[in-house]
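Lecture 7 notes. Example A: sequence first, then its structure tokens.
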Amino acid sequence: MTRTILLGVAALAFALSAARGDQFSDRGDQTRSYFDANGSFAGSSNSHGNDNMTSFSDRNGRFSGSSIRNSDGTTSLYDARGHFTGSVTNTSPQNERRR
């Protein structure tokens, strides 16, 4: 259950980052850390440059899933075994995104 919550939190964080527009810049790989409500390290994400793919790791550094941004504006989420677990859509207007 904790793993499901972590993946959900990571997916939400990814979706919010994508909405801000800085997730897919020309900066190359970008690593982010996530913390739980108590301030303890909960996991991390690694955005892989401009290939629109992000991987997630749990607090022990084990791969826990990935997300891929599709050309239609949706983001597909996959668990550690590569099974599709869902998708999200950015509903922010294009002109409100920061670049």
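Example B, a different protein, same format:
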Amino acid sequence: MLSTPSVLARKAHIHGLLGDKAKDAAYLRRRVAAHDRLILHMDIMHRVSQGKARWVKAYRWTGRNVNGEATKRKPKSLGSSEDREAYVRKGLKKQWHDMGLGELGGSMEEAIEIE
């Protein structure tokens, strides 16, 4: 279970990393949408069952509704596992860059040597 202070602390941390961009509501809405697209491409979903939350493999996006009718065209980036992986890598790299993090989500600053 998540506590309110923990969520607020994480929000403050992310907004601190984003700097002035965090003050722009439109940017934050686009960021949420980008995260949703990344999750879709990772083919995972968050599920809560019997009080336990976990990430599980999602059902593949088929472009059809529950009646089997076509809804809209499938994005090219969802075509193959390689396309999905490339989309996720590119998306994460952009998100990390916006927060001032390195290629693997770590700090871009030099490490501090401790004697």
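Note on Example B: The helical segments are 4-18, 25-42, 81-98. The chain has one domain: 16-98.
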